[in-house]
Amino acid sequence: MVSKTRQTPIPPGTENTRSLRPALLLGALLFMVAAGLFSYSSILTAMRYDVEITPSHLYAVEGEAATLHLLAINRLGGEVPFSTTPCTVELMQGSELVTLEADADSVCWTLRSTGRAGSVSLRVSSEAWPFALFAALQIESPMAQLRRVDRSYP
């Protein structure tokens, strides 16, 4: 006895579908690998570093504070996400105008005003970047104090 198996006929126009599926999957896989490499090299890799001081100027009031961060900049000009770069800060000019306080891992530095006006120059260095970066902070007298000083002169 011979068994007969029934084969379903292939609809017209779908003969090449089975041979295209592996090629499309391979193309999609290669596209995902290329997108991953692009995002790693362009977005997640630091190309340069920049110093950010917020706020950019302080008033000559004791206790007024600014924070300093070292930002990693990627190829697209934005910040590298989830990047924390430890750094060291050296006061070049105006050391009597501010006090420096670092957090536990030296990523964020706090500059506190001592109550005197002037200009502060900082030198920021890190092991991640071979060149020193320079930043400046301006400490200004509040207008209320300036008016009191002007009135005291005859």
Describe the model.
- 23% of the residues lie in helices and 37% in strands.
- The protein contains two helices and eight strands, in the order αββββββββα.
- It has helices at residues 17-42, 143-152; strands spanning 48-54, 57-59, 65-73, 88-93, 98-102, 108-113, 118-126, 129-140.
- The strands form two sheets. A four-stranded antiparallel β-sheet has the order 1-3-6-5, with no helix packed on it. A four-stranded mixed β-sheet has the order 2-8-7-4, with no helix packed on it.
- The termini are far apart.
- The model has no long low-confidence stretch (mean pLDDT 84).
Quick take:
This protein is an alpha+beta fold and 154 residues long. The protein has two helices and eight strands, in the order αββββββββα.
